[in-house]
Amino acid sequence: MMSLKDIILLVRSLPPIEAAKLFTWTGALKITLASFCILALSENPGFITMAATRTPAVVSSNIETWENDQSIYRFRITYKDPEGKKATTVAYAYKITFDSARIHKTTALYVDLGYAQSKLILVRLYTDNETLYDSSLSQVIDDKNDRIAFSAIAIFGTMGSGLLIGACFMYWQHHRLNASPRKNSAP
Question: Would you say 109 and 93 are in contact if contact means Cβ atoms under 8 Å apart?
Fold first, then answer.
């Protein structure tokens, strides 16, 4: 792995036009990555058009701590959708609530499903006496994911813009130096 110092030495060893091309391509790549981060932003599901249907569900994966918030568990649940097909989705629950409900892979869970923009979504996940996932936790998850995406957009956008400005400056400086008239030293 190259250090930042090694990268700076490598760029300085390049001819100015080659360094400007490198900056242009790298800046364009960073701007492209920033635009892909826009796709990671959460979509507001909008109004739920179908009344929620209650369906039994089971935990179908290992329960793991969510990397973006250590107070939340992330896991997969399996259930049958309204058409009778087996479906799997990711669910989240606060650790305190999940642990107090003593949930394991054989615990009876229920999901409320609904349609928003013709897409089936998880509205609520609960046991007989505990609500594990609902719209308020969904909003927390979406907000944290959006903050991460906005940070990536800001970082990649700033880096890409800086590299493109640097490339423009290098092109301008190269052309200014090559276009200046050479003075003869006449007596």
Answer: no
